[in-house]
Amino acid sequence: MDDRVEALREAARAALPPVEGTVRLPGLHAPVEVRRDRWGVPHIYAEHLTDLWTAQSYVMASERLFQMEMAYRLGLGRLSELFGELTLSMDRFVRTVGWNRAAARHAEAWDDLSREMSAASAAGALAWLEAMPARPVEYLVLETDPWLPGPEEAALAGAGAAVFMAWSLSRAWDNDLLRAEIAERFGIEAMRALFPLIAPEPEAVRPAKDADDPRLAMLRDAILSPSGEGSNAWVVAGSRATSGAPLLANDPHLVVQAPSAWFEAHLVGPGLDVAGVTFPFTPGIVIGHNDRIAWGFTNGEGDVQDLYLERVSEDGTSAEHLGAWESLAVHREEIVVRGREEPEVLEVGETRHGPLLRSYMIGIAGPRVVEGGIRRTYALRWVGADGAIEPSTVHRLDTSGSWEEFRAAVAGWHCPGQNMVYADVEGNIGYQLTGRYPARRAGDGSLPAPGWTDDHEWDGWIPFDELPRALNPESGFLVTANNRPDGEGAWHLGSDFLPPFRARRIVQMLTARPLHDRESFAAMQTDTRSLLAPEILGHLLSIEPKNDRQEEALEMMAGWDHDLGADSAPAAIYEAWCTHLATRILRPVLGEALFEHYFSRRQWTNGFQYRALPELLAFPTARWFGEDGVEARDEMARAALDEALDELGGRLGEPMSAWRWGAVHRARFAGRLAAAPGLGELFTVGEVELGGDEQTVAQALFEPGVPYDVVVVPSWRQIVDLGDLDASVGVLALGQSANPESPHYRDQLALWASGKHHPMPFTREAVERHTGTTLRLEPA
To answer: pTM for this one?
Structure first.
């Protein structure tokens, strides 16, 4: 073993936190008990709520200190203080869109409870910083010391991390930008083809509406004038569960990362008994259950970001509005860059609608900022600039005991908006869409609007009581999978919901048997059956093969059951074929930069494959296939199939029947420093083969430009039994600790990969039965 790696392993062992005995902790009012179970999950018992938040943060910092610092730095645009020029483009992007400025506004408006929680949480993390036996190895590699916010900065840093999370789940502006770019360069019909409605009528039979289409009118006014980024959640009532009580499942989908995005904990204090997962920088529990209710999330996917095309004066100091010139607000941002004597100075202009954009981002696993890639002058308005999630909202959720209290708590869940499923010990099940959504004066927000008029302003928010919700439906179940929610009513919530394939598959499985239990829910969470594949293959399997190899592949797929299992050869052929076909269709039309932005490195979703491709195949035109008609389509499909078979043969060898989707479709969990020379083994937690794709219940999205590495996965799986909370189970993708020498660094990975869970003991008796170590925290 490399001497440097061995030295780092020794240092990692020296940095392991104490898990037994007694530790003196400044600021505590009374002793706190921390019982860790077999999986390293802390069950924390405190006599005071502030002690509980202090102890929780102390424990999280002891396991995830570097991750905590990264979240704070990212949210405030301060990564370059650590990483130098390497992260400067990211910091410039963050400071331009203004996460740091939004965080300052939010923190200033926090209520007293949020400030109290933030202060207690900061005290706990700082106490660990003072007491830790050694620096985590990340700091040794970076040759620096840890930084955490002090009491005065704590609210700002926490708000910045919350703004970052809100941004990562608010992705409408990028779709707006792409729609505008494609419409301007290739026309409205091309934009419609690449961004069809979720359930469109075929283009060939859709009546022409150019004259009345408000999106086209907006384009003419704003764009074509003379130049001048998933999850599943479901719940069944007791009538559909073997236990006779509600059963709730949730698996939020996040980017493949190490350590896990979530930290498990069980918190017990005055008026509080709650278990589940939270972000390492968030006091309380974000997803889980207390002694009365359970809840889970999927991202709401509503449109909370609008672009405004601005007319800016020649000297760049003002923007036109209603015939007058309004001075831009100018924010001077100084970015400290490691290795430089002077900071990077950035001046950000802002109109009445928001900051003027200079760049966009591509990529999921390895995101990259494309600076100077925006051709027009756009300002961004975003709900998250007005409000995110503050700590008191999480606490009110954690202490809710009924449907009414739950709804009252999540009314303050401003951004990112979430589909929340609910169940309680009284037998109720429910659904509530949360978040702020703009009440637009005109338009649907799907394209940039002219900023020099007031026709497209926001007139406040859609009232919370008018957002979709449901309680105890006759069906006995509720399902959400980022699909369009029912009950939009008169309000337009967005244009970029994900298609209903995962939701439909979940409903198929829920209705396939009269009663469900934990085992059936666990099987559902790992289901890899695709409802999209037969729609696409219905067009592709009709082609005439041009050689024996193509004939073998077509025969194999014709008998396929559309299960994208890791062991499936047809699944590998299907995914590779779709990727090469999309490349052949799009690259010649869009050009390299737009092809990369729209398809190959698109952030968060392969919208082309599930939204546009089926319709293009059904109605082939010369724009996309060179000539009109099925002959040109089939010729391109044959060429793409050859390319797919060549690629898979080169990677997997022969025979074709032995190919496996999981052999090329793998998730690699690696820390930020795994890319450093010689450190890959130390900071790589593990690699697993996966089935599925973006539109299967078992989420496994890959970027077409980085085939076929999995970049989005279920980051946490939980199944909560409201009849016996001790019977509830959960699993992280990796483990509790970020320390490579911890026994909890990767101890949940095998469980997660096999679709299994670990127990979530809840009652005191069950916790004591599962206790592995006990740490006592006493006032210093």
So the answer is: 0.94
